[in-house]
Amino acid sequence: MIFLNPLGWLLSLLLPLIILLHLKKQQFIQREVSYLGLWEEVIKEVEGIKKNRINKYLLLFIQLLIGILIVMAFARPMWIKPFKGESLTIVLDNSLTMRAEEDGVTEIEKAKKEIKKYIKNIDDDISIDFVTIGRKIQTIVKGGSKNQVLNELDAIQPTYEVFNIKNKEAIFSTFPEPIVFFTNKNILLGDENIKIGDGINNIGIIDGKFDYYNRAALFKIRNYGEKNKEIILELKDEINWQDIRKINIPSREVVNVNWTDIPLNIDYLKIYIKEEDTIYGDNEFVLPIGDKYKKKVLMIGENYFLNRALKSLPYIKLTNIKKYKDIKEKFDLYIINERLMEKKLWEDKNIWYLKPPEEMVEGYLDKYSEMKIADELFSEDIILRDSYLKDFSYLKEDENFKTILKAEDKTVMAYEIEDKGKKIYSTIDFNKTNFSMKTEFPILIDNIIKWFLKEDKRCYEPGEEIYIKESNIRLKTPTKEININGEENIKLREIGKYNLIDRDKNIKTFFVNPPKEENIKYDFLSREKKKINKFHFNNLNKIDLKNIIICLLLLLMILEWEVFKNAV
């Protein structure tokens, strides 16, 4: 029980007055009489006095009870029912499209107003989970009140991240029903979906790739709106080369735009959408293609077939040395074709051993054996058939190793991932296998190199994280600088150019581009849609006792009157 007006209890200070007035009430008075015959009448009267005394004490008790109930009525008592476990999940879309702006108001601000309006009508006793959804799901409030949600709501800002529709299953399985979803997309995701705005009038660049072999750039442009659009695209380099095109994009479609014969000696390409629309963040895209953005690979020792395959990969810059010597330059990958201790190299590096340490080799087979790929990480675009090894050694079994290639069920190539970087150990002599002559060989080498280098990219999407190992350096983002004092994961939130700076020297440049959103027709429902009454949660969880007290007062006043009549 709670009291809405606890100051009403101050009236209880007046209750002693009832007792005082009762004590001062006139009692029976003794008088002298001249005739003893009256004693018979006196005895009868004494018996009546005892009865009247009992009625007067009952009258005092009833009057005190009436006073207490009056005081309680002014204090406004409220009985709280036990919480029955009603819950609600509010999901807010804070992906890139919620940055859409119309008349100076973004879609995210409109969504916030709708959420405030919605939760205003639900009961204070409801347990609310409040989450945002974009590239990932983030829980803002877990099992909180609507006031907690309101306190956190204003701080929510839209990201530059893609909306990941795959998160829907996690929403359904993790958070309590019913689920109310606020978005500007045509997505039926929850039990109730509240659409924000009248649609997105936006053109965005959602992907870009560069073909080094044909010197061609390919971009994907998406029309989010309901009307066909004609736009102007400008492609330019960092200095003075540029090209302009006009294209038509049907409503809710993706169009591929291809530029060929890109000039040599260009560091990066940048494409712009010239027209202004509701989302500015996805109107440009950068492709770093120059030599300074290529991955640096060092090969120690000679290996004809592998060297030829590596030179065919346009995204790496290969350096060959015949023997190990002091290497002052840092590389992204070291391929070692001689028996060499790892401690001679820097720590935290990616290393491919073509001649693993002898203690790792278990045995030797002098026979022809067919090779097979054992791990899907490296089998993309490869169907390995009729590829054989001759006279090969094989690796010992190790719980830390995962097999890439095997022959006679023996491991001839394996990998491990450790704190000091990625490692591959291979016992294959590429001069003693027909696999080196097959078209699948450079594809496997390509897959291996990409596996080594995929965490250290030059282009990222908003919401991805970059691990920075160096200390006492600065990260310059498109809008600010961040001091890095040790190993740290940095979440990339802004679109644009980033620089890692060490003592005023730029040690790395990379870019964050608009997210690669798929052309998903969001008009689907993953389960049967339910209708939620806006007042579904306005169950009576509190009972106001004021009316009950007033009824009791009326009954006691009637009882007090009857007792009073009998007491006089």
From TrEMBL:
Keywords: Membrane, Transmembrane, Transmembrane helix. The chain crosses the membrane at residues 6-23, 57-79. The keyword Transmembrane helix applies. InterPro entries: Aerotolerance_reg_N (IPR024163). Residues 1-77 form the Aerotolerance regulator N-terminal domain. It holds the Pfam family BatA. PANTHER family: BLL2463 PROTEIN. This is Aerotolerance regulator N-terminal. The lineage of its organism: Bacteria, Bacillati, Bacillota, Clostridia, Peptostreptococcales.
